[in-house]
Amino acid sequence: MKERIFSEAGTSPSAETTGLESAPRRRVISIMATGIVSPIALTSGSAAAEAVTDLLVDADAESDFKPLRATDLQMAKPLLVFPFDAKAGKPRNESRLNKLVVVRLPEEKMTAETRARSVSGVVAYSSICTHQGCDVKTWMSKESVLACYCHASKFDLFDGAKVVGGPASGPLRAVPLALAGEFLSIAASLPPKAGD
Ligand code: FES
C-alpha cells in the first residue's frame, strides 16, 4: 500500500498561508492509494470506490464532478483542480492547500525529470505559491512560464517549476501523474529519476 501526502496550513491566501513550507502549521493528510479501478465509481460509499486512486476534478465544480482527461485541457491553459476522494464521493477541498494546477504542455520541451512526472503532456504542481501562498495559475505565453498574480513570481513548468522570476522561495511542489484508464490521476509514487 502506497501513501501520498498533502499538507494543510490554513484556509485563506493570507500571510498565514505561506504555502507548503509552513511547517509549524502543517497538518498532514495522508491519502491511501490502493490501486486503480474505473473512475466510473465516483459515488460515495460504493465498494469499488474503496480502491479508486485519486482522479482530478475541476476545482470550481460544485457538483457533477467529472474526472479530467488530458484532452480536456487546452495546450498551455492552466486549470486548478482538486484530487477526488472517491470513498467520500467528494473532492479533497477541505484545504485549499490540496489544490493543484495542471497544464498541458509540449513534452519535447520538458526536462527528462519533468517529463517522467507528466502524462500525455500534462504536468501537475501544487498551485500554492512558495512566496505567500496565493494560487499560481496565470500562464504567460510570451515567456512560457506560470506566474503568480500576487507578486509576480514566475515558475518554469518545463523544468520542475523552478523559480525564474519574482520573490518565491522555491519551486512549486511537483505532483507526479498517471493514467487511470483515459483519466488523469495522481501517481501512487514518484517515478524514478532519469538515469536511475
Ligand atoms: S504570493 Fe506569489 S509571488 Fe507573492
What would you note in describing this structure?
The protein has 196 residues and is mainly beta. The protein has a domain at 52-186: 3-layer Sandwich (Rieske Iron-sulfur Protein). The protein has one helix and 13 strands, in the order ββββββαβββββββ. The strands form four sheets. Strands 3, 4, 5, 6 and 7 form a five-stranded antiparallel beta sheet that branches. A four-stranded antiparallel beta sheet has the order 8-9-10-11, with no helix packed on it. The radius of gyration is 16 Å and the shape is globular. It starts with a strand and ends in a 10-residue tail after the last strand. The model is unreliable at 1-51 and 190-196 (pLDDT under 50). The site of FE2/S2 (inorganic) cluster (FES) has 12 residues, from loops.
Q: Determine the number of helices (DSSP H or I, runs of at least 4 residues).
A: 1
Task: Categorize the overall geometry.
Answer: globular
Can you name the CATH architecture of the domain at 52-186? Answer: 3-layer Sandwich
CATH superfamily of the domain at 52-186: Rieske [2Fe-2S] iron-sulphur domain
Here the CATH topology of the domain at 52-186 equals: Rieske Iron-sulfur Protein
Helix vs. strand class: mainly beta
Classify the helix fraction into a percent range. Answer: under 10%
Q: How far is it from the N-terminal to the C-terminal residue, by CA?
A: 23 Å
The topology string of helices and strands comes to: EEEEEEHEEEEEEE
Largest sheet: 5 strands, antiparallel
The set of bound ligands, ions and cofactors reads: FE2/S2 (inorganic) cluster
Q: What is the mean pLDDT?
A: 77
Q: Which regions have little confidence, pLDDT < 50, spanning 5+ residues?
A: 1-51, 190-196
